[in-house]
Amino acid sequence: MSDWVIDVQGLHKHFGDKHVVNDLSLQVGRGGIYGFLGPNGSGKTTSIRLMCGLLTPDAGSGSCLGFDIRSQAAEIKRNVGYMTQKFSYWDDLSIRENLDFVARMYQMPNRREVVDRALESLGLQSRAKQLTGSLSGGWKQRLALAACMLHQPKLLLLDEPTAGVDPTARRDFWEELHRLAAQGVSVLVSTHYMDEAERCHQLAYIAYGRLLTKGRASAIIAEQNLLTWQVAGQDLTGLSNQLRARAEIAQTVLFGEMLHVSGHDAAGVEACFAALGINHATPIATSLEDVFIYLMQRSQDNFGGER
Ligand SMILES: Nc1ncnc2c1ncn2[C@@H]1O[C@H](COP(=O)(O)OP(=O)(O)OP(=O)(O)O)[C@@H](O)[C@H]1O
Q1: Could you tell me which CATH number the domain at 227-285 has?
Q2: What are the φ and ψ backbone dihedral angles of 16, each rounded to 5 degrees?
Q3: Disulfide-capable partner of 236 in 131, 259, 295, 296 (CB 3.0 to 4.6 Å)?
Q4: Which residue range or ranges hold the ABC transporter domain (predicted)?
């Protein structure tokens, strides 16, 4: 088998006249966490569904766990764990009953043992009898992860698994993902959270159905060649508008009481600061969030009208 758990080339998908996935090529290596990022509606869910054979592409080809995404969808489904965006377990069953139901669907012979193992590995034993409908978001998401791990898949596809979950539960969830990755499980995870993006081994960023960049976080940041300053002070919104009007400023982003100002030419940006009387700008490292905002704005200019 190749070293890629996902290897797709030139995928396209339309819904009506919307070009939702536009020429997607992606390779995901074994045993790492691959983050899939992009604004709402950029085509992440559709891409994941194409990659695991749940949807058929209009054009393009590829494999998932070595199985052809067009002709071997049933094999892919049996071998991947897919956590959908929407929590899809029964509120009026307990955690144990929900897991048992999933084990039945996979026709697992030793259900009791399998469910016990899943409960233990995700720390769910103490709540095994609790009705699922009464669980907090964090526990629900832990149940969903346990359910999609039940058949011990080698690849997990997680579609915004931590949306709406509090920071502590999100951190625990990510500890679990890293534990699984260390055991050789490959993970493709879509997210909107920057702290989560930073915890991935590799990233892809998609907007308007197109892959804009992929690679390690540090390489993605370096590739855009953005220099960034942090500016504190009064009326940051007004300052931001003034800065944006200048060609030397590539972008401004408000982060609470700070304004991040980015450009490609240090002398040009500093000249703008001087011209506007800004004498409290500190150079800082460009963050992944700065870069993603930059990429998204550029993609709006380039492709925004096409879909
Ligand atoms: N079955 C469908 N029929 C028609 N349009 C669809 C269908 N599924 C998705 N779309 C549209 O395709 C676009 C991409 O949707 P998709 O869910 O793949 O994006 P996403 O990046 O996962 O978004 P989000 O971050 O909001 O979950 C959206 O405009 C969506 O409305």
Answers
A1: 3.30.70
A2: 60, -130
A3: 259
A4: 6-233
- C-alpha 226/C-alpha 222 separation (Å) is 8
46: helix, strand or coil = helix
Question: pTM for the full model?
Answer: 0.89
Hey, where are the domains in the chain? 4-220, 227-285
> Residue 294: what are its φ and ψ, rounded to 5°?
-60, -45
Q: For residue 39, how far is its CA from the centre of ligand 1 (angstroms)?
A: 11
Q: How many whole angstroms from 112 Cα to the centroid of ligand 1? A: 38
* CB of 42 closer than 6 angstroms to any ligand 1 atom: yes
> Which residue is listed with tokens 């995700």?
122
Q: Using 50, 70 and 90 to split pLDDT, how confident is the model at 87? A: confident
**Would the CB of 22 count as within 6 Å of ligand 1?**
no
Q: How far is ligand 1, taken at its centre, from the CA of residue 89, in Å?
A: 22
DSSP line for 97-121? HHHHHHHHHTT-TTHHHHHHHHHHH
ipTM above 0.90, yes or no: yes
> For residue 99, what are its two tokens?
């897991």
Nearest to 48 by CA among 216, 217, 204: 204
Assigned CATH topology for domain 4-220 = Rossmann fold (3.40.50)
